[in-house]
Amino acid sequence: MAKIKISITCILLFFTFSFLKAQVPILDFEGLSPYLSKQNDSIYVVNFWATWCVPCVKELPAFEKLNEEYKEKKVKVLLVSLDFEKYYNSKLLPFIDEKNIQSDVILLNDPRSNSWIDKVSPEWSGAIPATIIYNKKKRTFYEQSFSYEKLEKELRKHLK
Question: Superfamily assignment of 25-159 in CATH?
């Protein structure tokens, strides 16, 4: 009887922890839009990336480090994945778990990119990685890769 209870407990724990793995909201641009224009006392670092984009993946540790080191200073990092929704379970979620991504992640699933790219920034060609750093006073767009040092330098311009 004790072995059955232990087995059931192990199974329940397995299912509980499997549900605690990465859960990523899937939004269209209308759903994402409020995350691009918050007007409060935080600074937002919004990075557009994808698991298939080598420069994007290479720079993710810089965003993760920024998220960790500046969370007490009201800096919020949001990683907006442009992966295809059909790969949500097979690629995106395993990638987030494997890399232990702690920043907030959203999957942008809106094929009408020609209608929303300019709304993110008129400077954006649509190439990734791309990043916005903004607060209620200042907004800067970057279509480039970042090292941690360069990313932190740009963030500091918004902390002043």
Answer: Glutaredoxin (3.40.30.10)
